[in-house]
Design a protein that fits this description.
Blueprint lengths: L1 H13 L9 E11 L5 E9 L5 E5 L13 E4 L4 E4 L1 E6 L1 H9 L1 E2 L6 H14 L5 E6 L1 H4 L7 H8 L4 E5 L4 E4 L1 H7 L11 E5 L5 E7 L3 H4 L7 H17 L2 E9 L1 H12 L6 E7 L1 H8 L12 E9 L29 H13 L3 E6 L2 H15 L9 E4 L17 E4 L1 H15 L10 H6 L3 E4 L10 H8 L21 H7 L2 H6 L17 E4 L8 H5 L3 E6 L2 E5 L2 H4 L1
Parallel strand pairs: 1-4, 1-5, 6-13, 7-8, 8-9, 13-14, 14-15, 15-16, 16-17, 17-18, 18-19
Antiparallel strand pairs: 1-2, 2-3, 5-20, 9-10, 10-12, 11-12, 20-21, 21-22
C-alpha cells in the first residue's frame, strides 16, 4: 500500500504543468499539421492563448521580431512539432492494470511464460495471480494452453490470465474450482468453455465464458485504480498520444476519470464509450455528457460487441475456419438484439460503436445500420470497430450512412500469419483493407486497441504505409494493394480519429480556435524512410499549450 501511495504522489508531481495559463509563443520550430481536408500545412511559429487554444500558426522570417505581449516564449531550436496523436480505440484502465499486473506480452514459448508466471508469483503476495498478454500462436503450440500447465507453476493459487486480445482467458484448476466450473457447466451464450477429449474444462474460457471466473477475482481498491490510471496516462503521453477513445468505459472507470479531473490530474483527453447501453444511460442520463475539464472528458457513445477475436477463433465468419472445419466463431447477438440495442442508444443520441472482426459480424452490423439509417438519419457517425475481415462484396457498404472504419494498423502485422492460417489465402482480399475503406468513402480512424497492442502511433503509422513488421517483412508488404499514403495514415491518427469522436471542433489538428495539443519529435516524419518513421521518438508532449511530459524528466524527478 505504501508503494502505491508513493507511486500516486510521484506521478501526480510529474504531471504538474510547467507554467500557468498565459499567452505565449512557440517559435523556431519545424511545425506541421493537416488542414481539415488532409493537406499538409507547414509553419515555424505558433501563438497559444491563455485559454489553451491556438491563436495563430504562421511563418516568421529570420529578421522578424517576436510579437509583443507574450508572457512566455518557447524556442524549440528547430525541432519538429506535430499535433498530438489520437488513439481511436483503446482501453485506458486495461493498460493501467497491465502495467501493474503479470505481463506475458512478448513471451516466445509456453516454457518461457511458465517461468515468468512462477517468478511473478514468488515476488508478489496477492491471493490471486492476475495478468495477461499470452498468445499461443507465437508460442507455436497449435492449441490452447491447459489448466494443468498453469497448475505446474501456480499450485492451488487461483490464476486468471487474459489472452493478448482480451477475448480468451487461461485459468488454472483453482480458478475453475472457485468459479464452480465443471464438465456439466454449459457454454454461456456468446462464449465457449474449451474442453478436453473427455469433456472436462481444459483451462481456457472464450469470450462470454470469461465472466464465469472474472466475477470471482478480487477487485482493485480505489487507490490501486488511481495508480493504474496515472501509469496508463503517463505511458500514453510518452508515446505522443494526447487523446484517446476509451472503448468500454464502466461506471467505476467514469467515476475514476471524474476523480482525476476534480483533482487536476486528468491531462489526456478521453472520448468515452460506455460499456453497453445501461452504462451510458447511468452516466449520461438522457444523452451524451457535455465536455468536462477543458474538453478533457466526455461520454458520447456506447460500445457493443458483435463477435470475438480471430486468435481465439471467436471472430464470426461466413464460412468455416480454414484451420478448424466446423467452426465459424461466435455471433454474440441476433440481428434483432443488436438492432434493439443500437436503437436504444440512438434514441438518446449516443454514438454507436460496434466491435466486429469477422466478415459475418461486419455484415450483420452493416445490415442493421442500413435498416436504422432511414429512421435515425442525420450525423450519426456509426462506428465499426476493427473491421478486420470484410467480405469484398461488403466493402462498398462502408461508404454509406457516414460509417467510420475504426481500425488498428498493428493488428495487421501481428495477425498476418495467423490470418492466413485461419482463413486460407483465398479469403484475404478484404482483410485489414485500409485503402479500400478510403476508396469507398468511409472515414478511417486509426488506433492500437491498447493494451492488446502497444499504443505507439508512429509504429502504426509505419505499418499503414508499408504493411511490414519491425523487420521490414514481408518484402513489399503483406497484401500491399491496401497500402495507403503517409498523409492518409497521419490523417487517420489525427483529424480522422477526432472526427470519429465528434471532436473535430476541439482537437486533432493545429488551427485557430482548436486546442493547442502538440508533440515535439526527433525527426520529420514526412521526410524519413519507413523504418525511420517507425523509430520516431517523442521528446515532449504538450496539452492546452502546457508541457505535460518531457523525455528524461522521470530520471530527474
Amino acid at each position: 500500500m505504501k508503494f502505491l501511495s508513493k507511486l500516486l504522489l510521484a506521478l501526480a508531481a510529474l504531471m504538474m504543468p510547467v507554467s500557468a495559463f498565459a499567452d505565449g509563443i512557440i517559435y523556431n520550430v519545424n511545425g506541421m499539421t493537416l488542414d481539415e481536408d488532409g493537406r499538409v500545412v507547414r509553419f515555424n511559429a505558433m501563438i497559444v492563448g491563455s485559454d489553451g487554444r491556438v491563436v495563430k500558426i504562421f511563418n516568421m522570417g529570420r529578421r522578424d521580431r517576436l510579437p509583443e505581449g507574450m508572457e512566455w516564449r518557447a524556442d524549440m531550436e528547430g525541432r519538429t512539432l506535430l499535433p498530438g496523436m489520437i488513439d481511436a480505440h483503446g482501453h485506458v484502465m486495461g493498460l493501467g492494470f497491465q502495467l501493474s499486473h503479470l505481463d506475458l506480452v512478448g513471451t516466445q514459448s509456453l516454457s518461457e511464460a511458465q517461468a515468468k508466471i512462477a517468478q511473478w508469483g514468488a515476488d508478489n503476495s496477492a491471493k490471486w495471480i492476475v495478468g495477461g498478454g499470452w498468445n499461443q500462436e507465437i508460442w507455436g503450440l497449435g492449441r490452447f494452453p491447459t489448466a494443468q500447465e498453469l497448475d505446474a507453476v501456480t499450485g492451488d493459487r487461483p490464476t486468471v490470465l487474459e489472452r493478448v486480445d482480451g477475448h480468451a482467458m487461461w485459468v488454472n484448476s483453482a480458478a475453475l474450482e472457485a468459479a464452480g466450473i465443471t464438465r456439466d457447466t454449459p457454454d454461456p451464450a456468446g462464449g465457449r468453455i474449451e474442453r478436453d477429449a473427455a469433456g472436462n474444462p481444459s483451462g481456457v474460457l472464450v469470450d462470454a465464458a470469461m465472466a464465469l471466473v472474472s466475477g470471482k477475482v478480487p477487485q482493485p481498491t480505489p487507490r490501486e485504480a488511481n495508480a493504474a490510471f496515472l501509469a496508463a496516462q503517463r505511458y500514453l503521453l510518452t508515446q505522443g498520444v494526447t487523446a484517446t477513445a476509451d472503448m468500454g468505459t464502466t461506471v467505476d472507470d467514469w467515476l475514476l476519470y471524474r476523480r482525476m479531473g476534480d483533482l487536476g490530474l486528468l491531462d489526456i483527453r478521453i472520448m468515452s464509450y460506455g460499456s453497453g447501453v445501461e452504462t451510458a444511460l447511468a452516466v449520461g442520463g438522457q444523452g451524451p455528457t457535455p465536455w468536462l475539464y477543458r474538453d478533457r472528458l466526455r461520454m458520447g457513445g456506447i460500445k457493443l460487441y458483435a463477435d470475438g477475436a480471430l486468435g481465439s477463433r471467436g471472430a464470426w465468419l461466413k464460412a468455416d475456419y480454414a484451420d478448424a472445419p466446423g467452426q465459424r466463431g461466435l455471433g454474440f447477438l441476433s440481428d434483432d438484439q443488436l438492432g434493439n440495442l443500437m436503437v436504444r442508444g440512438a434514441m438518446d443520441n449516443f454514438q454507436i460503436a460496434v466491435h466486429a472482426i469477422g466478415d459475418r459480424a461486419n455484415q450483420q452490423v452493416l445490415d442493421v445500420i442500413d435498416e436504422l439509417s432511414d429512421t435515425y438519419d442525420g450525423d450519426r457517425r456509426w462506428r465499426i470497430e476493427h473491421a478486420q475481415i470484410v467480405d469484398p462484396a461488403d466493402l462498398p457498404r462502408f461508404g454509406k450512412h457516414g460509417i467510420i472504419a475504426s481500425m488498428q494498423p498493428v493488428h495487421q502485422t501481428s495477425d498476418m500469419h495467423m490470418a492466413e492460417a485461419r482463413l486460407g489465402p483465398d479469403r484475404l482480399a478484404g482483410a485489414y483493407a485500409w485503402k479500400s475503406m478510403l476508396e469507398n468513402g468511409a472515414t478511417l480512424a486509426f488506433g492500437s486497441d491498447f493494451p492488446v497492442e502497444a499504443p505507439q502511433p508512429f509504429v502504426g503509422w509505419a505499418v499503414a504505409v508499408s504493411r511490414q513488421d519491425a523487420d521490414m517483412l514481408p518484402f513489399g508488404g503483406w497484401q500491399p494493394q491496401q497500402i495507403i499514403t503517409r498523409e492518409q495514415a497521419w490523417a487517420a491518427y489525427t483529424i480522422g480519429a477526432a472526427y470519429a469522436g465528434f471532436a473535430e471542433d476541439k482537437f486533432g489538428r493545429l488551427a485557430p480556435g482548436l486546442r493547442a495539443d502538440f508533440i515535439i519529435v526527433d525527426r520529420d516524419p514526412l521526410n524519413v524512410s519507413t523504418s525511420q518513421l517507425r523509430g520516431t521518438r517523442v521528446l515532449e508532449t504538450w496539452i492546452d499549450g502546457q508541457r505535460v511530459w518531457k523525455a528524461g524528466e522521470e530520471a530527474a524527478e
